[in-house]
Amino acid sequence: MNFSMNFSMNKAYRKPLPGTDLDYYDTRAAVDAIQPGAYLKLPYTARVLAENLVRRCDPETLTASLQQIIERKRELDFPWYPARVVCHDILGQTALVDLAGLRDAIAEQGGDPAQINPVVPTQLIVDHSLAVEHGGYDKDAFDKNRAIEDRRNEDRFHFINWTREAFKNVDVIPPGNGILHQINLEKMSPVIQSRDGVAFPDTLVGTDSHTPHVDALGVIALGVGGLEAESVMLGRASWMRLPDIIGVEIVGRRQPGITATDIVLALTEFLRNQKVVSSYLEFYGTGVADLTLGDRATISNMTPEFGASAGLFYIDRQTIDYLRLTGRDNDQVRLVEHYAKTTGLWADSLEQAEYERVLTFDLSKVGRNIAGPSNPHRRVSTSELAQQGISGKVENEPGLMPDGAVIIAAITSCTNTSNPRNTVAAGTVSEESQCPWTYP
């Protein structure tokens, strides 16, 4: 068995992408050939899934699969081939151990073990093993914590480093570089892939529930279990039926001083009440323009807390500006904008998209909130803290903290790390409080 095969692509509807040396698949033509004018009404998710079908689906079942999307039916399974797999070091390592074991079995039978490789590009980020033993008040805290991490994980890191050299299609981001979702958003996602002379949307599965963090870029990214990720890694389709695609119209503008965390906690409460379990959410509307990519990432990251599977934003000027800000190659940034505008994935191209269900959320009504830690949907307005017995007046000697008091400025890690406003604000609060602990 050879797991080094190339991606197979169909020939129908493959056309030159104007102004480039790449081809693309004209999904609009394929959809409109079945039902004229249907593409214009498709939501963003449906357009991306349809492109995947036109490019990769068995030609004999293509029409029937596209009809499920066009007619909003959920009667047949159709294949989805994610462009890449993203793993953290715990679950990703087990998948690579399986491949290493398969190599041993092939070698025992006299075969070439080097032929066993992931078919789909796989990125493994080592970020789930760090334990903070030295606080931020120690100027050498980073180096000391990293040394402890290396010592505790010596055998595991040795195997992970071996996989980087041994396997094709495996890219390892070593420890000390950041959190999986932050790296995925800021560095790893091209938004539009170009492979084998063809441009197509970036899509992925990841072995972490907060993989939809990168949905903020308009990238369909789903959190899955290790076995499903391994199956995709080996080139197998992830079979699905058309998901419930819900439009979430964002209106209004935030009040001064309101952070993305305030917004997402209010939004979590709202969406939980609206019963969006397993749905694909698409955020759009006049209020979206006021949200930075960091704000959008904060929202998309909380997708599992909404109960949904995906939380997508359209590709627009904010997306392009963010790609430039994070150092993406200029040619790649131009490709993203050109492809999105050509194929109907640009925000302005989705004004006539129709949703089976639309929810409206008003940013102007969001106040300052707290929630959690275990129940992020249990939002409490800061104006009600005393009323609910969470805060109250403390009598103590001037200049002295009361016994047992601890001041901590903290923000939930992967929800906020790609939002500079939130991380800087947390750090500022901790500095002003003379607090030795921050968890950015």
Automatic annotation (TrEMBL):
Residues 73-430 form the Aconitase/3-isopropylmalate dehydratase large subunit alpha/beta/alpha domain. Coiled coil: none annotated. Gene3D superfamilies: Aconitase, domain 3 (3.30.499.10). It is an enzyme of class 4 (lyase). Keywords: Iron, Iron-sulfur, Metal-binding. Its EC number is 4.2.1.3. It comes from the Bacteria. It catalyses: citrate = D-threo-isocitrate. InterPro entries: Acnase/IPM_dHydase_lsu_aba_1/3, Acoase/IPM_deHydtase_lsu_aba, Aconitase/IRP2, Aconitase_4Fe-4S_dom. This is aconitate hydratase.
